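Order emerges. For instance:

***
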Amino acid sequence: MMEALKEAKRAFDEDEVPVGAVVVHKGRVIARGYNQIERLKDPTAHAEMLALTSASNFLETKWLSEASLYVTIEPCSMCAGALVLARIKHVYFGAKDPKTGACGSVVNIINNKKLNHRIEAKGGILARECGALLSEFFRMKRKKL
């Protein structure tokens, strides 16, 4: 999770919502991502989406069934859906997202029995650190208004 937090700090430094993600396969980080929505002018440029694309390219496969995603905040419905489609094995996240979280907070896409794949998830990993970075970012944004 520390590696995902480093990616979130990159996003923070680039004035993006500070979310970072890494994909781990067989004990090593194979892909990284951080939010680049503003930079790329792309609403799908979430940290998880960018990390998934990078991991699939690295492994040269669409299935990430032996990989785990570490992300600083609970994935949203778009990202959770992509994780299911990629058949990722585990998701570990920092802070829960009570507004858009799709791994149990608002909805639970990753364990929906109607879908063809379910993902093991664990939240709350370095939650205080991950949440503090997000809180600081939005505090600074409100201060500028």
Observations:
- The longest strand covers residues 28-34.
- The beta strands are 20-25, 28-34, 67-73, 90-95, 120-122.
- The two ends are 32 Å apart (CA to CA).
- The mean pLDDT is 97.
